[in-house]
Specification:
Elements (H helix, E strand, L loop, with lengths): L8 H17 L3 E2 L3 H18 L13 H4 L9 H8 L7 E2 L1 H5 L15 H8 L15 E4 L5 E3 L17 E3 L2
Antiparallel strand pairs: 1-2, 3-4, 3-5
Helix pairs in contact: 1-2
Length: 172
């Protein structure tokens, strides 16, 4: 039997407001159904209490961060889902068209490969042929939005999508 994790409403509201603010600053939108979205936010907080990170509330997490990096919110699949379906898999984030009522929410098919080996391949895209190039310093790629930066270490937070440092991978 799993343990019951109670999250105080004030903590849910605080994270909801933070995510909403960060989404707007980055050109994203939270689902306008506040009750539904608060439940997703509560689930993110429950997953944080369980695992130590915001695992997607609609996917089964392994409980090991290295295995779950692709489904830490915002997940690696969010942007493609927004483009193709108007919402991310759990519908926390929605497109402009869904927000304006021009498009209805619909079920989003799962993009996450079922095989853990395939997930690792998805998590580690490689740079195009770089023969003849030798960057002066490493290039880091945000796995959430694709932002690239050349510096000794990845930034603490992506300036585009606000993903944390652990969502960056060395690209070059």
């Amino acid at each position: 039997m799993s343990e019951e994790i109670a999250i105080p409403p004030a903590k849910i509201d605080a994270l909801y407001e933070q995510l909403d603010r960060e989404a707007k600053e980055s050109g994203y939108h939270l689902n306008p159904d506040r009750g539904f979205t608060r439940e997703l936010v509560e689930s993110l907080l429950i997953n944080e209490a369980r695992y130590g990170y915001f695992s997607c509330p609609c996917r089964l997490a392994a409980g090991e961060k290295a295995q779950d990096l692709d489904i830490i919110c915002p997940c690696d699949y969010r942007d493609a889902d927004l483009v193709d379906w108007g919402a991310c898999y759990c519908a926390l984030y929605v497109s402009d068209e869904v927000l304006s009522g021009e498009q209805e929410l619909q079920p989003v098919p799962e993009r996450r490969p079922p095989d853990p080996e395939l997930r690792l391949q998805h998590q580690s895209p490689r740079a195009p042929d770089t023969v003849g190039t030798n960057p002066a310093m490493p290039v880091w790629r945000c796995r959430v939005c694709g932002y690239l930066c050349a510096r000794e270490k990845p930034p603490g937070v992506c300036p585009i999508c606000k993903a944390k440092k652990d969502r960056f991978e060395q690209f070059w």
